[in-house]
Structure formats: C-alpha cells, structure tokens
Amino acid sequence: MGTGLGQLSSEITDSYEFSYKDIPNFPVSTVEGHAGRLIFGKLGDKNIMAMEGRFHFYEGYSMKEVTFPVRVMYELGIKTLFVSNAAGGMNPEFKIGDLMIITDHINFFPEHPLHGPNFPTGPRFPDMHEAYDHNLIALADNIAKEKGIDIKHGIYTGVQGPTFETPAEYRMYNILGGDAVGMSTVPEVIVACHCGIKVFGISVITDLGGFDNPVKVSHEEVQEAANKAQPVMTAIMREMIKRS
Ligand code: HPA
C-alpha cells in the first residue's frame, strides 16, 4: 500500500501485524506518511499480505533491500502484487487527482534490482513484455466503468529522486514516452516479474509537470492530493482483490 492506499489496511480482517523493525533483515521506512508494518489477513475471502509503507532507493537502501519484501512475498506463495504510488503527471490530458492504471514502465533507476548473480526464481534475462498483467488491467477498466470512475491509462517512468523533476526533465520524460513519473514501484515490479508474480499498478497523479507554466511541487501537496484520491483508489483495489 503505497501513497494513497493506507486506508485499505483498516479493512483487513483476521489480521496479524508485524512492525518492520521486528522482522529480521527487513529495512525500516523513513518517509513521513509511510508507516512500517507487514499485515497478514483477509480481504473479502482472499488471503493477503499487505505492506504498509515501502522502501525507496532515495532513502539510501540498496536495490536488494528495496525489493526484499517482494522476495519474501514469493517465498510465501503470493500470486499477485497490487501496487500503488503517487506520481507527477506529464501527459497534458492528466489533471491532479486522476488515477492512472500503469500499462507499462520505463526504468530510469541508476541501479538494477537484478544486478548480480541470478536468483533461481527466474531466468537471467527476464522477459518484460507484459510486466503489468493485461487481464488485471481489463478487470480494473470494468470495475472503473461500473463505478463511474474516469480512469486513465499510462506509462510510469521510475526515477531515483529525491528531487522532483525540473520542467525540462518532466518534458524529457514525456518525450521519451512517459505519462507519469515517480520514485518507486519499478524495482518491485521487476523483481515480481522475475518471480512470476502477476502485477497490477495504479498511480495517483498528485502534481503536474512539463507544461508551459512550471509549477512548484512539495511533499505536502503530493500527500494532500493522494489523500483526496484515496477513497476511489481504495474502492478499485478492494474490488480488484475480490475478483482476481
Ligand atoms: N516526480 C517524481 N516523483 C513524484 C512526483 C513527481 O512529480 N509526484 C509524486 N511523486
């Protein structure tokens, strides 16, 4: 549960909760607005493992640490990963508060999570042609339609941060094919793919960059926009988990 999805944790029943700090080898989240708990329980009739708070490369963690929880998910038999994040919108048709189903990503992180000896969960050279599961995207579209939610599709550009982009950078990432830009998700999705875990991701567009009038962006604004979008994001994810 990245930015914009914290609310979902209150709906988990039959839960066991662990503070990240009490789990051997687990990193601890340092960013305001990201708690640090691993929750096991049920959502609807599905067994789930939820991460409340994730680890970002900009915090100083290695890529191995950032993606360690996904390795744990694999070992525990998790079949589908649902990810959320906050992102800056670069597609001129986007507005603040929009939800964007991630259809694909572009990896701009300076380090690769699969760098080093290959893990036996997947091949040395993993295929990435469907990193975000087509059936799950279709399911999300149906759910959004049923609920009258206007949902966008787009390509998520993953960058290291922690600076937000300069206007020129937003424009560049858009020219290169990105619709939104953010500082997470891509490493976890790569490792999930390498483990054969299906992925579905949504970004909440919390700010806009790259247009003619550059605007200032702050962490507080990002949090505020994400909180506003939270009920809709929660409704979609809840339904996705139920029906997938
Ligand atoms: N850029 C990078 N990361 C972000 C942004 C942004 O504009 N908004 C939220 N996370």
TrEMBL record:
InterPro entries, per database record: Nucleoside_phosphorylase_d, Nucleoside_phosphorylase_sf, Pur_Nuc_Pase_Ino/Guo-sp, Purine_phosphorylase
- Domain Nucleoside phosphorylase, residue spans: 11-242
Pathway where it operates: Purine metabolism; purine nucleoside salvage
Which UniProt keywords are given for this protein, alphabetically ordered?
A: Glycosyltransferase, Phosphoprotein, Transferase
Enzyme class, broadest EC rank: transferase
Cellular component, GO, one term: cytoplasm
Q: Might you give the EC number(s) for this enzyme?
A: 2.4.2.1
The terms under GO molecular function for this entry are: purine-nucleoside phosphorylase activity
Q: Which GO terms describe its biological process?
A: nucleoside metabolic process
What PANTHER family does the annotation carry?
METHYLTHIOADENOSINE/PURINE NUCLEOSIDE PHOSPHORYLASE (PTHR11904), PURINE NUCLEOSIDE PHOSPHORYLASE-RELATED (PTHR11904:SF9)
Which family is this protein grouped under?
Belongs to the PNP/MTAP phosphorylase family.
Q: Output this protein's name.
A: Purine nucleoside phosphorylase 1
Q: Which organism is it from?
A: Prevotella micans F0438
